Amino acid sequence: MLNIAGIELKSRLFIGTARYPSPGIMQTAIEASGAEIVTVSLRRQPLQPGGGNPFWDILRSMPVRLLPNTAGCHSVKEAVTTSHMAREVFGTTWIKLEVIGDDYNLQPDPFGLVEAAKILAEEGFEVFPYTTDDLVLAERLLGAGCKILMPWAAPIGSGQGIINPMALNTLRQRFPGVPLIVDAGLGKPSHAAQAMEMGFDGVLLNTAVALAEDPVKMARAFAHAVDAGRMGYEAGMMAARDFAAPSTPVVGTPFWHK
Predict the structure, then answer these.
(1) I need a surface site. Which of 21, 89, 229, 239 has the fewest CB within 10 A?
(2) Is 96 noted as a catalytic residue in this protein?
(3) Is the pTM of this model over 0.70?
(4) 10, 96, 118, 147: the active-site residue
């Protein structure tokens, strides 16, 4: 079980709601993923749920917890204002905080991110900050009041997988008691398994599922990969070695010579 902000979760896969071919496929893919937390952007959907909008109708009907995000925000003011709207619309203090600093690779603005996180944490929000794999930035976000970190594997939507495993390993080692969710850049189920094998608490993804030829099957594949990676981590994986070692012991085995 994964405990996030006092909520017990069976699934360690978080999933987004953007770019699916249709609302119906989105619903089926989310169900296939087994995800219990689903992210949604207020800036990319009509602000008020309801009114016969099939997108909101589907989300309201599903047994998931919504995690509103501030995707598309480029300033502290935008991010904080969007967070306030999310609290009113969804009745939640959970917010996935994004403050974009670069439009080309969608890298977070580290200064704006820390400032917005501090403001929102002081207002009682449970802030899930989308950040890079930078250690110092992670420390600043925790100091600003964040209790969860969401470092990227690679730029949003790139599908590159984990581009800097050393940096992510450093975060995991330095913050053993902090929930760390790898967010953005995962393109294949094997990427998700790798993150879980490294000891991360979960992964969040969207594009890799939504733009797959078969989003439902891909969602199911990621669910299995997350479970397999976590089980491998918990089981204790063998360390890589620079030499061969026989899997069948030879001690005490008779050798016959002609």
Answers:
(1) 239
(2) yes
(3) yes
(4) 96
